Amino acid sequence: MHEDRRYLLDLAARIDRGADELDADATDPRGTLEARDYHLPEDEIEAFGARHAAAGKAARQYSARLREEATADIGPVPAERIRQAEKVATAAGLGGILIDGSRLDEAAMASPSTSDAQRQAIEDHTRAERAAIEGSGMFTHVAEPGQVPYWQLRQADQDTAGHGDARERGVAHGYAGGPYDEALFTDPEQGAAYRAGLQAGRTAAVDETLLADARQHAAADAAEVGELAEPPTSGPVDDGHRYALAGPRGVSEFLDNLDPDADHHTITVYGSADLARRMADAHTAGVCVAFQRLDEPDPAATTDRDEEGWEA
Q1: What's the chain look like in SS3?
Q2: Residue 254 binned pLDDT confidence (cut-offs 50, 70, 90)
Q3: What range does the domain containing 186 cover?
Q4: pTM higher than 0.90, yes or no?
C-alpha cells in the first residue's frame, strides 16, 4: 500500500477519535459545558448538543468513505484530497469547527510591515485553506452577528430541506443590499433561515467596509510605534531585541483557555519588525495593547513609558 493511503487510514482513525469526543459531548451537553466552566441558557445547551451530534455523525460518515478510498487502490493520493481529509480530522478534534481566520489574514496583508513576498504567501495560504475546506464538502460557513466566523463540520444534507439554500440566498441578498425575496422572507418554513442569511450578509458587507477604512489608517496607526515600522516600500527593519506585548482577554481564545482567570495576556515578541506587525494588526482590529523591551533598553531613548516601563 502506498504511504499516502496509509496516511489516509491514520486520518480516518483520527476522525473517529474526534467523533467519539463529539458524541460524548452530545450525550451530556450540560455536563460538558459545566466542566469547562460555561453556564449557558437551556436553548444554547441544546443547540450545543445538536451541533456536536451532527458533527460526530458527519465525521463518522467521512471516515468510512476515507477508509474505502484508502483500500480501493494502491497508488498515490492527490495532494488536495489529503489536505481535505486533514481539515476534517482537525475539525473533528476541535469540537466540530474550524475558525475562519480570513479577517486576521486580511489585517496582516494590510499591515505596512508586511512585505510583498509575505503578502503573497499569506494570500496563497488563505486560498489553499479555503479550497481544502470547501473541497471536502463537509463544512458549512457560519458568520452570525457578534461572533467570530467559523466553519461547522456538517453534511449539507443534514439541513432541513430547502433551509440551507434559503439561508445562502439570504446571505447573497443581504451582502448585495437587495433586492430581497419578499415571498421567501415571509415563508412559514424557510423564512427564518432566509432572514438569518440576510442579517449575516449585511454584517459581512459592513465588516468589509470597516476593514477597508481600517486599511486606509493602518499605515498612520503603525507609524505611532515610531522606528519600529518602516514604509512598506523599504521593508521592515528588525533591531533584534526582545519585547513583551500585553493585550486584554478576548483577543486569543487559546490564551484565554490557558489562563482563564487572567484579565490580560502577555507574550514575548522577538524583533521590532514582528512587534510592528503585531501592533499594526492590533490597531487595525481596534485592540489596545502595550509593549515593553525586555533586554537592556537604550539609555538615550526618549519615548514615554509608565513607571513599569510599558509603552502604549
Answers
A1: CCHHHHHHHHHHHHHHHHHHHHHHHHHCHHHHHHHCCCCCCHHHHHHHHHHHHHHHHHHHHHHHHHHHHHHCCCCCCCHHHHHHHHHHHHHHCCCCEEECCHHHHHHHHHCCCCCHHHHHHHHHHHHHHHHHHHHHCCEEEECCCCCCCEEEECCHHHCCCCHHHHHHHHHHHHHHCCCCCHHHHCCCCCHHHHHHHHHHHHHHHHHHHHHHHHHHHHHHHHHCCCCCCCCCCCCCCCCCCEEEEEEECCCCHHHHHHCCCCCEEEEEEECHHHHHHHHHHHHHHCCCCEEEECCCCCCCCCCCCCCCCCEC
A2: low
A3: 163-222
A4: no
